[in-house]
Amino acid sequence: MIALVTGASKGIGKATVSLLKREGYTVIAISRTKPDSGDENYALDVADKGKVLLFVKDIISKYKDIDVLVNNAGFGIYGSFLETSLEEEEYMVRTNLLAPIYFTKLILPRMISRRSGSIVNVVSEAAYVSSPTLLVYSATKSALASFTNGLWAEMRKYGVKVSGIYPGPVKTNFTSHPSFKDAKDSFSRFSVEPEKVARAVIKAIKTGKREIYVPSKIFLDPYFLKFSYIMQSITYRIVSKIFE
Ligand SMILES: NC(=O)c1ccc[n+]([C@@H]2O[C@H](COP(=O)([O-])OP(=O)(O)OC[C@H]3O[C@@H](n4cnc5c(N)ncnc54)[C@H](OP(=O)(O)O)[C@@H]3O)[C@@H](O)[C@H]2O)c1
């Protein structure tokens, strides 16, 4: 079984690669700096569409079928929208949102023809609660959630599992982006270990649940969002039934 994980050099991606290997997968690991965690490790900027197209073509000709795709690579830019750089924000949109679309577009057709496979997108609670100073990041995650939900509904009849993982704060290198240097450290004491998110990825692969939350240590965050969860669950069940 072959799994491909983006953003595999650190944090959630690295923890996910370890767990997938323990589950018996051969893991293709990708990030801008060549990771050391996978069975095969590649340096690739997932925001570069041309390079992603060539890379995935090569991988498919080598491995034929990818059983699991984990779209995890991503980053945030902290700061008032009045001060953040538009160029960096565009790059973030390509990394957080367009890259999962590129990889999915290229890998999905063979999953459909085999009627099996899992696509797991690492989203964020920020998809549901857009905070000042992280609003474009939140927008990328809202859009990724929307893409994931629609894909889940569309793929049900093809036997391909699609899930979104929604972590709260996690102890990773996420805040190492230079823009976080003046950020208030409000959440780190509530952060969970990246392994907890990696376990949610494995659960997603096994169950194909549309959304899996990984709450912070406060544990209450999902309850604040509960009402919208319930309404969305009902809505997506109806949408997928209509599509069938
Ligand atoms: N930490 C949190 O609190 C938290 C909460 C909710 C969701 N998330 C999400 O979880 C995912 C993983 O983040 P993390 O917390 O594990 O942060 P992290 O420790 O900074 O890891 C991010 C990974 O993505 C890679 N990456 C970033 N941009 C890339 C690009 N353009 N091309 C290829 N690889 C790229 C990084 O490697 P290189 O720098 O070498 O490329 C690194 O391997 C992200 O999508 C993030 O939005 C994080």
TrEMBL record:
GO terms for molecular function: oxidoreductase activity. Keywords: Oxidoreductase. It comes from the Archaea. Pfam families: adh_short. GO terms for cellular component: membrane. Belongs to the short-chain dehydrogenases/reductases (SDR) family. This is 3-oxoacyl-ACP reductase.
